[in-house]
Design goal:
Layout lengths: L10 H12 L13 H14 L9 H7 L17 H7 L5 H17 L5 H14 L6 E2 L30 H4 L3 E2 L6 H11 L13 H14 L1 H8 L4 H9 L5 H12 L4
Antiparallel strand pairs: 1-2
Helix pairs in contact: 4-12, 5-9, 6-12, 8-9, 10-11
Length: about 260
């Protein structure tokens, strides 16, 4: 996945600098050296476009600048996705769950213009990694979210990066749904996107239709990163774009590869 950052150099950095100049965010002389001036210009451009202003030119920033091409609208394949094929991607899922939830997932992807083969496979593989049973679920208590002898999800209560404000936010905004939406700020942001008051009623995230809409909205937000990674077979980066790490990478990769041979 293409990332340009402080200390990098070369023709791609020069192209980035030239595009920044064209966009009226002057990095200084386009010399192919990613220095402090380029980093400041990138941050300013990112703020202007509502992107994360980290000064690193990743796929979303580069696409907005025209360094990378914007995703091309691809044919919607959702109508051709069969339960009989999805079953093979989910060896541990009850058939009833797939029959119940698959139509909602496909409808949400289609509505979000993510119904092409790559994004359908990504969505299904994400569900496989997050909830092998193909049903929206709540996060389980573990050592990663609950301290020894602590109340459930106490390690989330004061997570500023999640927008949590203390007890009971950890439990109220624990992971839910197909994509394990977590944290007050994410419930608020995605809720606004899909027209649901998730902060007031977080359990809605486990409703089949709402969970499907959340999944589609979440994938829409990292679509460029996912497509860029998968275009070169980088499953780890595609998984990281959704999960922020490598949890479930094996299941994600297995499901995607099985689906590739079944969904056309």
């Amino acid at each position: 996945m293409l990332l340009l950052k402080l200390g990098d150099s070369g023709a791609q950095v020069k192209q980035l600098q030239e595009k920044l100049k064209e966009a009226k965010f002057d990095p200084g002389t386009p010399d192919g050296q990613f220095g402090a001036g380029t980093e400041a210009a990138v941050k300013a451009f990112q703020k202007s476009e509502g992107l994360v202003a980290d000064g690193v030119a990743g796929p979303r920033t580069l696409t907005k600048l025209g360094v990378l091409p914007a995703p091309v609208a691809l044919p919607d394949t959702t109508a051709s996705v069969q339960v009989s094929n999805v079953v093979k991607m989910f060896p541990d899922a009850p058939l009833g769950n797939i029959k119940t939830h698959l139509p909602n997932v496909l409808a949400a992807l289609s509505a979000a213009k993510l119904g092409d083969r790559v994004m359908v496979l990504t969505a299904l593989s994400t569900i496989r990694a997050e909830t092998a049973g193909f049903a929206p679920i709540s996060e389980f208590i573990s050592r990663f979210n609950t301290s020894p002898n602590g109340h459930p999800f106490d390690l989330y209560d004061n997570r500023k990066d999640l927008g949590n404000k203390g007890r009971p936010d950890g439990d109220s905004f624990k992971g839910r749904g197909f994509v394990q939406l977590t944290g007050r700020s994410n419930y608020e942001r995605i809720g606004d996107q899909i027209g649901q008051k998730l902060v007031a009623n977080p359990d809605l995230a486990n409703d089949s239709k709402v969970a499907s809409d959340i999944l589609a909205a979440f994938l829409q937000g990292v679509e460029i990163e996912i497509r860029t990674a998968l275009s070169v077979g980088d499953f780890a980066s595609a998984r990281q774009a959704v999960n922020g790490g490598s949890h479930g990478l094996t299941e994600f990769t297995q499901a995607f590869r099985i689906g590739e041979s079944l969904i056309t």
